[in-house]
Amino acid sequence: MTRLLLIALSIAVVTQPKRFAVYRITPQTSDALQFLENLTKETAIDFWKEPRAVGQEVHAMIPDPKAGAILDSLRSRNISYSMMIEDVEKIIKNQKFARMKLKSERRQKDFRDGKVDFNLAEYHSFADVINYFNALAITYPHLVSVQPIGLTHEGRQIPMIKITNKRLSGPKRGIWIDGGIHAREWISPSTVLYFIHQLINGYDQDPIIRRYVDGMEWHLTPLLNPDGYEYSRSSTDPEIRLWRKNKSPSKCTTTAQGLFAPPQTTCCQGVDLNRNFDWFFGQVGSSTDPCSEIYNGAYAFSEPETRSVRDFISQHPMTTFVTLHSYSQILMYPFGHQVRTYSNDLDDLRNTALSAANALQRMYGTTYKVGTGADTLYPASGGSEDWAKGKGGVKYSYLFELRPEEQVWDGFLLPENQIMPTARETWEAIKVIATHTLSVPHGSGAASGGFHHSRAHSSSPSSHSPPMCRDHDQLCTEWAAGGACETWPEMRHRCPASCGLCRH
In the CATH hierarchy, which top-level class contains the domain 18-86? Predict the structure, then answer.
């Protein structure tokens, strides 16, 4: 009897669900920072905010089985930490209960003030978004077109809605806005849906919006990663709700365990889509480990979601590219793969971003940092906004990290009562960017595909080269010395002189 009881207890222990907590950790020395950076290779830990600089907070979600040893290691190194969220799944369940309760109550009328019945103040399913798009296309045929731009691994269409006055012909500037590239960042699709509502329902009331719709083609994709998004909605399990990547098929890696132990095979699913674009692919801030949250994929544009963006923009040139993420309250412009690295039209990009952030702040007082991703967060290559500027031919390219700010505890679990204020204030920033977009002369692309470094560099060795064979970037000499001529195909076009491709 005793033996049977022990077996039953052991089963109970084995099947007990893991509890996840989120910790706020602050490295105060370079050694502490290095320790935390090494921890990012531990796949059981989900870094909501990655270690990037001494003195800057790190947010890490750690399961109970790992927490004791990791916290002991922090204490032994005098690394300060505090608990941000004691039980992540409890928060997720409470929010789910609140959503269900709210659904049973009468909605506030100002959230559904258009001809199409749709509540902007809640997080919607993929099916809800598809139905909403179709209803808009039927109700506003002179303004709205709906089309899929591609299919995901699981066979879902990637929905895009185009908004423009179809009765006005002639050349129009294109503006692209996407959300949901990271599955768990639910506030970004909801914010894009609010933009759609404003453009359509404000057309007859607001002369500024009418000008935007008459003079531009708006291409809005709120769910760029529908597989991951739906997966994140499917459970209150933190590992599912906080899923970041897409749902690409599992990839397996085998590692040796020692001379007398069999090798261990680990299989993991998904690619970080915002590391999969062809901009210094795989060089920094990403991983080749399929189990990593920042796995960049087998090669640039290996994923159907990123290929869909590339193919659409190559066929429909854009003046402006905006991608929405969360969280941190940062407005970023290119380039994010290296600190102090900027496009040649930096002043215009930065001034437009500063004006947008100021307009956003005037709504509710929300403050945003403004800068490149490398300067404000950490260097990371393969990002969509960098690719759009560097290779996609756009003039204005921006990435928004939406609410909440870094110190707020809820991070990716932003409650629904934050949807409307987040969307409203971000729309004010988008209007500034749209106004600047309208001012770009027709036929102008990025006009700044090259980029420069904030520090002075020697001029490119092109003075004795033929006129058509010269370097086009001030960093060509440095890149060539670092081996980029062999590893980055774009170098033959950007830096032919430094790569020795010129005939004298």
Answer: alpha beta
